[in-house]
Design a protein that fits this description.
mainly alpha
Length: 103
């Protein structure tokens, strides 16, 4: 076998990153389910009230950014581990009309 391949297979940091990728994949999957649930609640709320719920917009904005951070980490586009190893992403504070929430 190639010496570089053997060294890569023995690299503790690569195996640790693989472990974190699996853990964050599961966290991202769960975050995706919560995002889907929030979307459904926002749809129902929109039919009832005629506009999205501002609190849920803030929550979903933070979750969306967390989901993106997880994707960046597991695809090796970022070496920064998402929450809880770094701060929770700040929610986008623009109003719903600025973000295009109302069609």
């Amino acid at each position: 076998m190639d010496e570089k391949l053997i060294n890569n297979l023995k690299s503790e940091s690569r195996w640790l990153r693989l472990l974190f990728i699996v853990i964050f994949y599961i966290a991202g999957y769960l975050a995706g389910l919560v995002i889907l649930a929030l979307a459904l609640v926002q749809i129902v709320h929109g039919f009832i009230k005629g506009q999205p719920n501002e609190r849920l917009l803030t929550l979903s904005s933070g979750l969306n950014q967390y989901f993106f951070q997880v994707l960046q980490f597991i695809t090796n586009n970022s070496d920064t581990k998402p929450y809880p190893f770094s701060d929770w992403p700040e929610a986008d504070t623009r109003s719903s009309s600025e973000t295009g929430a109302q069609l």
